[in-house]
Amino acid sequence: MNKKIIALGLLTASLTAVAQDSQSDISHSFFEVGYGVVDLAGDPNAWHIEANAEITEHFTIGGEWWQLENGGAEWDHYEVNFGYHTGVTDRTDFFTKAHYGREESIRGTDVYGLALGTRSALSDHFELHTELKYNEVDRATRGYYIAEVKGVYKFNQNQGLSFAVQSWDGEGTGLEVGYRFNF
């Protein structure tokens, strides 16, 4: 229940972002690389690469890879996704993505799921992203959620620095810092 309340609060906060007069500068075509920790206790560490390309005015295709490292063990996650986005205000977009991929740890398994969230241009140089993602794992008794709030400070139209706060299944708080290139 707490996860649902947190997710609803994150989405509501982003949807109610104050709209400004300037035109939206939200790009759905980007490449991002990042590094972080899944839990502030220090373990596990995570590398992250994501790419997304707008194929029509509202549809995107993309991919994501991340690797968790914990005490010498590695857990790789690969996925491809197909997404849809639409404007909620002149400065905020709602998006959703369906994804399919693979997770490799001790034994490989298929993974699939959905993500939804918002991207808001709070100023010409700052974007706020919220996302709630669910991954269903074939060889597991249940899947897991990832809730994320991310800020992107844009140096210019193409380059920016991202900082994210994440929670995996509502357990612990993780941080990630990254570099984003919009095209």
Please characterize this protein's 3D structure.
The protein has 183 residues and is mainly beta. It has one domain: Porin. Helices cover 8% and strands 64% of the residues. It is built from 1 helix and 10 strands; from the N terminus they run H-E-E-E-E-E-E-E-E-E-E. It has a 10-stranded antiparallel barrel with strand order 1-2-3-4-5-6-7-8-9-10. Strand 3 (59-70) and strand 4 (73-89) form a beta hairpin. The protein is globular, with a radius of gyration of 16 Å. The N and C termini lie far apart (39 Å).
Question: Secondary-structure blueprint of this entry?
Answer:
Layout: H1 2-15, E1 30-37, E2 45-54, E3 59-70, E4 73-89, E5 92-104, E6 109-121, E7 126-137, E8 144-154, E9 159-168, E10 171-182
Q: Notable features of this structure?
A:
1 helix, Porin, ten-stranded antiparallel β-barrel, 8% helix, mainly beta, 183 residues, single chain
Q: Numbering strands along the chain, what is their spatial order in the largest sheet? A: 1-2-3-4-5-6-7-8-9-10
* Proportion of strand residues: over 45%
The residue-averaged pLDDT reads 85
- The end-to-end distance, rounded to whole angstroms, is 39 Å
Oligomeric category: single chain
- By DSSP (H or I, 4+ residues per run), the number of helices equals 1
Say how many strands there are. Answer: 10
Radius of gyration: 16 Å
CATH topology: Porin
The sequence of SSEs as H and E is HEEEEEEEEEE
Largest sheet composition: 10 strands, antiparallel, barrel
**Could you say which structural class the secondary elements and strand pairing correspond to?**
mainly beta
List segments where confidence is low: pLDDT < 50 over at least 5 consecutive residues: 15-23
Report the CATH architecture. Beta Barrel
User: In CATH's first tier, which class applies?
Assistant: Mainly Beta
